[in-house]
Amino acid sequence: MNAELPPSSYDGVADVYDLHWGTASFLWLRAFGLLVLPQIARGARILDLCCGTGRLAGELSRRGFTLVGLDGSREMLRHGRTNAPGVPLVEADARRFGMRPTFDVVLSTFDSLNHILTLGELQSAFRCVHDCLRPGGLFFFDLNTELGYLKHWNESSEIVGDDHTMKATALYDRRRRLGLFRATIEQRAGAQVEEVELRQRCHASGDVISALEAVGFTDTETFGLEQEAIVPDCLDSAERAFYLCRRPAATAGSFRPSTRRASKGG
Ligand SMILES: C[S@@+](CC[C@H](N)C(=O)[O-])C[C@H]1O[C@@H](n2cnc3c(N)ncnc32)[C@H](O)[C@@H]1O
Prior knowledge:
Layout: H1 14-20, H2 29-35, E1 45-49, H3 55-62, E2 66-71, H4 74-83, E3 89-91, E4 103-108, H5 119-132, E5 133-144, H6 146-152, E6 155-160, E7 164-173, E8 178-187, E9 193-201, H7 205-214, E10 218-226, E11 229-232, E12 240-246
Parallel strand pairs: 1-2, 1-4, 2-3, 4-5
Antiparallel strand pairs: 5-12, 6-7, 7-8, 8-9, 10-11, 10-12
Bound molecules: S-adenosylmethionine (SAM).
S-adenosylmethionine binds at residues 7, 10, 25, 50-52, 55-56, 71-73, 76, 93-95, 109-112, 115-116.
């Protein structure tokens, strides 16, 4: 399996995504409201990692938070400029980005981190997140669970929009813990056809927690989405897992600026 999934994989699906799923991450706003909101100040600085078409970043920005969005897909970010006006949007790879430790919260929603296909790369994304948080800052994200894949990733679907049709199949390979989403998008006007293939990894919760701890996160809590309820410590019976952890208040950062300052007299 190629671990180097290009971060631009969503380019071909960006228009359809924004139209049909753009607001789906609002579902996780409730979890954010319950678990993160009580711990942060109004105006807190938030990085939306893998922000997609920027709907959630726009919504949080309208609620008075200071947002930055990061995504690997230029086309998803193009929608983000409309959906999240005034929010700085950065095109970068979640597995290897560097930002100064200025964020109070990093959040990542709607399976985004399942797109990182190996545990090593997930851990390197976690390290980047850790290093861009202020000491004491929070990291909140969701992942699809095995139950979620088994329930929702063995089906075909067809979406008919005003000017396009998308035929998609989602398959989950339980042995390899790998989800494969394939879509054909047909634009009616120009008869243009776009083929898109997206892959996701079902990361085991024990591995995720170990990877978080390995880069320095503490106080990890897990919550499961069961039907409509957000339940603590129940990942085996949940379709979606939420993780909340903290960069400790007192550790030194390992942030290394990418441009070196020339040393005098060296
Ligand atoms: C399912 S969408 C979720 C988007 C958004 N968070 C939401 O809730 O609507 C997954 C997003 O993750 C981004 N993504 C996947 N792998 C990435 C990577 N390695 N670096 C940056 N972005 C990535 C994709 O471009 C896509 O926008």
